[in-house]
Amino acid sequence: MVLTGMINSEEVSKMRRLVMDHKVSIVDAFTDILQKKDAEVLAELRQFSYRSKKNGFHIVHICTEMAPIASFGAVASFVTGLSQALQRKGHLVEVILPKWIAKFKFNMLLSRYGSMNLNEVQGLREIEVEYYSYFNGQLHGNKIWTGVVRGIGVTFIQPLYYSSFFNREKAHGYSDDFERFMYFSRASLDYIVKSGKKPDVLHIHNWQTALIGPLFWDIFVQQGLEGSRILFSCHDIHAQSLVQPEKLALCGLDPARLHRPDRLQDSSNTHLANPMKGGIVYSNKVVIMSSTHSKGRIIHSSSHGLETTLNMHKEKLLVAPCGFDSSAWDPEKDKILPENYSADDMKGKAVCKIALQKKMGLAENSSFITVGCFLSDLSDLSDVDTENLRAIVQNATKMGVQFIFMMTGEVTSRHKGLESLQVKIEDANVRFINRHDETLSHLIFGGSDIILCHSLHDPILQVPLKALRYGSAPIAITTNNDNGFRHFPDHDNETTKLAMFINSTFGYLSFRQALDEINNNPSEWNHKVFDAMTKDFSWDAECCDIHISAYTAIKSL
Asked: In which pathway does it act (predicted)?
């Protein structure tokens, strides 16, 4: 409405605050206003009641992916899951995305290939006005699209002159990736200013939008955003993009001002600039996403060249775990399961196991130990010792243990290791499913005693978290002949509740040790399983609480 001139930015800021402060959720109200014209909605907003107010933050995510419309990695499920959790707690959340237009559309569960699934967007419409953003010394036009995804307001930015930036066969992996995402970052801030938005927090993600930090403080903070602050989430600290510092000028930044050791200059390749480092330096709070590691371990052992920077800014550094969608993954309410169950009544778990065995053509006996394993297209199978995994399976099947392997993406050359494993293991107790089956995946969680995991930190599929909820112990695949421990106790007190729980229950167990405990100490094993089922590790729990705490802290700065 601001872009089309129906309302000025000052009035719309007041209206947005009223909507935020009202007890009625946007999710609840959206269906009623979906078919109304702008003039009708505007008339109702101008009569909006001040009653039943509540305090909440206005948060704008600026990112390159969001489930289920564009899922390329860990950011997608995080943005949707956290945003829904925040809105359930009374905060107003918006998301700004590039409008992906891929040349080819692949039907994959998860892949960096694919286009935007606009069927998941409610009320999608093009705003009948162009707005301009700065890039490479000129102003360039953009189309704006708006809609709602899972109750969250979403804005899509579509470049006109640089139309090829988001019209590719892949989401990333090109020589001009830096220019593409820098354009989007600058265009997002230009849009926020011109639309009159005054968010409390700009929430940015990974290196792709990390430059919003320096852009905000060097250019935009004095353009009506004095009350806004920056939170930077790092989902993959290993994925860093290094660029020639001169390229920073393309979006209006001053390379000479930023290419310094305490700003964007890379610590190892000092002739290059590191956008992720800039995101850390120029943000008010930095959240590292990790379900297993403490703050100290991340800084000193998993910083991938950023140890000095993280240590310098450790006071604003937080660690948060991932979550999962507990509305879709709950054995007490899961309509896919043949019988529901809970920690207080586990009879349905045995029913699910028998159903799974029958479905997979395995011997039907609820006393047999059944193991599920999900391997995604994004898992680097070269990190898994295939021979070790083969030995684990062959040794366990001799004891009657049953295995079900499911691929969660398209079969590609990266799965040759698993195909080789399948050839080497010809056993009546082993089954391989070479495609993702959503219905069957629920049954695997419900019917398994153990879920073998590539890693206990799985930000994309959240397999370990779902396993805990379904009473199926998550056990990490080891690469040391299954003879030792993978996780040693982490005594850093700046760790998450999820990490402490996993590392004190199942995180320290090898697969062999898990089998021994099931057979030799079933009461202790069952106690841990039941305890895990009662814990809330959904997006609404620790992940959301840590972010609300971070938003609160930076708004007081």
From this structure: Glycan biosynthesis; starch biosynthesis
